[in-house]
Sequence to fold (336 residues):
Amino acid sequence: MGKTMKTLLLAIVAAVPVVLAACTGSATDQTKIRIGEVTRSIFYAPQYVAISQGFFKEEGLTVELSTTAGGDKTMTALLSGAIDVALVGSETSIYVNQQGSDDPVINFAQVTQSDGTFLVSRKKLDKFDWSMLKGSTFLGQRKGGMPQMAGEFTLKKKGIDPQKDLKLIQNVDFANIPAAFSSGTGDYVQMFEPQATLIEKEGKGFVVASFGVESGQLPYTVFMSKKSFIERNPKTIQKFTNAVYKAQRWVAAKPVDEITDALTPFFADTDKEIVKAVVKRYKEQQSFASDPIVDEKEWNNLQDVMQTAGELSQRADYKKLVDNTFAQRAIEAVGK
Fold:
């Protein structure tokens, strides 16, 4: 784990600024629940669908959504009580567990089941082979974060040592990676959507591979909360999970155009055709989880990725940090 993550997880703050609030409406019989998302991303389509299509409201919940900008800040907000539920990578719950928390963070509803980044080449390649990366300058993600770990895991699978075979750049802030690549930094870059599609549209780069496809299924982004909050509010967590599962079924059943329409209110500054292209790409590679269950095999794959990156000192107990009770009940209640 990087020093920044360790420091911020230990220095818990009392509040986190709310960047954006999104509510389904209010009613006297509704329960308010505060969600902190690690970033605003089309990758989290089921969450926005649960809001825009009224699934949270159906369950008697009013959602306040804030973007907490980074795994460390999101976890700090959760641990301090500034938010009730976090949408963030499962690795953050493992990091908290490694710190010896008396109130562990529990993963209870999975949203994405693969890495969401893509390998973008500066040059258009008629035929790509991973060996082409050797000797290149690679603009990567933050050390200790799930994107970088999934990236390194994939590179090593392909016979590439990130530290020896590449000029690896990791000192660029997440938000500045697309601009850095556009301005000439790196031969290749590991990039999220919609930036990857935007870069392609501008002719400044070309998507040549998917880290999500290559690194396999894992609980990449999950709704989680403190054990104490879940124990105090089991009915609220159940309603929340029911709404998430309804949204997952909706996303699985609906065409790309309809999903795009459901998401556009959350991406007002992004061209609708870009949103559509990203939804199509993520849906085709099955990035969205089909149900909220956090699978043990995927959990173990996550820890394999973390160990390969040297970010896991001891494997975390699946049964301690994952509670599928609410997901299983949601499937029973809503149907398959």
